[in-house]
């Protein structure tokens, strides 16, 4: 590698092989790491450059992207701080690896930091696939997400994310101008084949994102 490795997050980077495939920013769920979502990224968008991060916060030894006070109750000051650090890292990684603005693909806690980053730093992401996300901040910041496509995939039987909460997140993103597709799958918090099919098809349709965000 000739470029300096960007600092701030433990991560893995896989260069892309397909010119039109958008770079993906992969953000794991609680207890995961930078290796977890690489196979998912490869399957969802073959040929995309993959930038896969490890959450910098430890909860009983499990990596996360921000602190929480209890299940579903977030330390919002920490959410804001960590979203800012993530936005700065994305800028450094784009310069180091020569990337267009990435599409975030986040699962659970990773989807929640992606949603917070969209709302707090809309300029750093070209769009997002939010898998089992919930509202990351009680008060929605004033964000301009006009033109940003967001796919939100929720689970009808999710014991962690109530249906009302996922709908509230979709509404927050829509009010900020994002083009939101919200689908509720017949699934729990874990991902199903239907999620993979829906996310893969959506990303395939967005393959122009790489060029348009460059
Ligand atoms: C969170 O803490 O971000 C959500 O409760 C999802 C989780 O990681 O369990």
TrEMBL record:
Please give the Pfam families that the UniProt record associates with this protein: Abhydrolase_2 (PF02230)
Q: Which InterPro entries match?
A: AB_hydrolase_fold, LYPA1-2/EST-like, PLipase/COase/thioEstase
UniProt superkingdom: Bacteria
Q: Where is the signal peptide?
A: none
Give the keywords, sorted: Hydrolase
Q: Which GO terms describe its molecular function?
A: hydrolase activity
Work out whether the entry's keyword set contains Ion transport. Answer: no
What are the residue boundaries of the Phospholipase/carboxylesterase/thioesterase domain, all occurrences included?
A: 70-199
Similarity-based family: Belongs to the AB hydrolase superfamily. AB hydrolase 2 family.
What is the official name of this protein in its record?
Answer: Alpha/beta hydrolase
